[in-house]
Automatic annotation (TrEMBL):
GO terms for molecular function: hydrolase activity, acting on carbon-nitrogen (but not peptide) bonds, in linear amides. It comes from Lentzea atacamensis. The keyword Zinc applies. This is LmbE family N-acetylglucosaminyl deacetylase. Pfam families: PIG-L.
Length: 245
């Protein structure tokens, strides 16, 4: 008999919630909204303090819109999107959309953000080469996710990035990557599902340029949440690959 584990369908564990502050670090506006925002809404409703840092402004993300127009518009949409899930602190690192490079400069910027915000929990996007189901991931997501994992360690090393003038921070307990094909944990978003839909809908200009399921927040997010829920007690859920420090 073939077990669920051999099929990549092992049951998911609950993401630990023994923390009070988190930092979300993703590549683009909309990255966390395609699934992970439901968890953010759940946690802010619990009174947890969460801030966002985005590597770029998403200026190259709409084919029909010049970057000089798209960038400022997508910043506004991301701020509105964060407000829908209870987040008011949103920062942008201004790396170039579409050609974000993994390397010391990116690690330095993310380590600085970790030292400033001093989170217990760091959340990033999928840094694996594919998405669940096998679709190819993009370079910006991989670069930012991997740099975030490394920057957590950098942030705690007082001899690395001394020029930042910020005290090192060793208080991160967990790093979680949303929507990883190697997900190990999940969050029940039954009560925060509507907030997650509202958060994605705030990306109006971006959604207007799409077609198919990804252009319909309710359809896309419900399908994804139900699929994860099959491995997490049958509830609406969103998944994470959890790394413990």
């Amino acid at each position: 008999m073939v077990t669920r584990i051999l099929l990549g369908m092992a049951d998911l564990e609950a993401v630990p919630e023994d923390w009070s502050s988190a930092l979300v670090v993703v590549a683009h506006p909309d990255d966390m909204e395609y699934g992970g925002a439901g968890a953010i809404a759940r946690w802010t409703a619990q009174g947890k303090n969460i801030a966002y840092v985005l590597a770029c402004r998403g200026e190259a993300g709409i084919d029909s819109m010049e970057p000089s127009v798209a960038g400022p518009l997508r910043v506004e949409e991301q701020i509105a999107s964060c407000a829908a899930v209870g987040v008011s602190v949103v920062e942008f690192l201004d790396h170039p959309d579409g050609v974000i490079e993994y390397g010391v400069p990116l690690r330095r910027d993310i380590a600085a953000a970790i030292r400033r915000h001093r989170p217990e929990f760091v959340i990033t996007g999928n840094f694996r080469e594919t998405w669940p189901g096998g679709a190819l991931n993009m370079a910006d997501h991989i670069a930012v996710g991997r740099a975030t994992v490394d920057a957590v360690r950098d942030a705690g090393n007082r001899w690395v990035f001394q020029d930042l003038g910020l005290e090192p921070w060793n208080g991160v307990k967990y790093v979680a990557a949303a929507s990883s094909p190697m997900s190990t944990h999940a969050v029940d978003i039954t009560d925060s599902f509507d907030a997650s839909v509202a958060s994605l809908r705030a990306h109006k200009a971006y959604l207007a340029a799409l077609s198919g399921d990804m252009a319909d927040p309710e359809l896309f997010l419900r399908g994804a949440a139900e699929a994860v829920g099959q491995r997490f007690g049958g509830v609406l859920a969103t998944s994470f690959e959890l790394l413990r420090l």
